[in-house]
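Quick check before the chapter quiz. The format below is the same one you will see on the exam, so make sure you can read both the input and the output lines.
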Amino acid sequence: MKNISFRIVIVLSILSGFLSYASGIVITERLKNASVKEQRATTSAFSSKDEVPVYLRGISGQGQSVETPDYSHLSDKIEVIFYPVDGKSDNVDTSFFTMHNIEYIKSESYLIAYVPVGLISELEKVSGAYYADVSDHAKPMETVSEGRDAINATKFILDGVDGAGVKIAVLDKGFKGYLDLQNRGELPRNLTTVDFTNGQQPVNPSVGDTHGSACAEIIYDIAPAAEMYLLKVDNQVSFSNALVYCSLNSIKIVSCSIGFDVPESFMAGGGGGIDAYIDTSFTGNKFLSIVAAGNEADHTWFGSFQNSGTRYTRFPNGSDFLSVNVPTDADITLMWDDYNGNSIYNIYVYDQYNTEIGHTNFVQDPMKKVIFSNYTRPNKLKIKIFQDQDTSSPNGRYMRLVFSKGNSSGDVVENSIDRNPESSLCMPADA
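Here is the expected output.
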């Protein structure tokens, strides 16, 4: 490169789905005082099988010529950036580009040319720059969650298993703040949002729960190339409509980290409406549902009614009450397996001093809930289950107590004998 008084170094790493290896291209200039020994030392630094050293014809401090390599395995063009003398792109002579119909663009301080691989060795004819290199593209400054490495997902991503070509839907109660996550690079710039609680309008990022946004962020960490859908739901109807939407739009992965405490799920044994749709969608190869399960393992009691002789059930600990630790704003829900709806059970709640603080009402409904919104006493409670009416199954009726919240340790049920986390599934985890 007689017309350029500088040293050009181009190191190229091309990663492509069509290539199983990368190639390195090194162009050196201004070797007036360089020795052959120095050149060989430089060559040995790029002697691995994945990086092939390239010295273009005529570049040698001793006037030696190096054979021009075969570039046929590379892509058609290489994006080369030129650093002009005095920082002015007008200093770069573009006649070589014009003569060979090479596309180039300029800013005030840089020039980028899209050079065919067959003309790389001719770049010595370009003058007016002091340095040239393969253009380095900007990258998003992503924030990767700790979970990605914890489940070894990073290895798969580096191996090319990154979700490309797959549509993933996140079903949740809200996606507040998802725009902020996009701006920080923690969610993809292009995603689809649908609010099934509001006429299938786009999701409002300023209202609702942030839980769905957090779930989507984790999925994006693990499958950064997937096409993502954020679908807002709030009840069985909107949830079911969202599942239909997934089928119609060829969405293959449905992530759902929410659940329903409803008698339909408990009594049908995983055969309720939502459960059935998830099951048939999987067997019909429509989509795979990934559903949260076990989150309430420490927030649930499951067992059968055993009459203690006073129409209160006897718990595994041998007494007629269950000791629990819940905050003052907890919901306590009782469900039981009555397909006919003729039985009546109620829960009575006492504080640690055996003072009654609430109970459910005498209603034929296989689901009862008591809410302590104004309860300000210590959070250690005693719960009793009373059989008001049941002629079909006076003993052995299966039932479940669900506590919406627990203390920080997660041990809602105080006595370990009474705990059975394996029976904590709600809908649709029981599908």
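If your answer matched, good. The radius of gyration is 34 Å.
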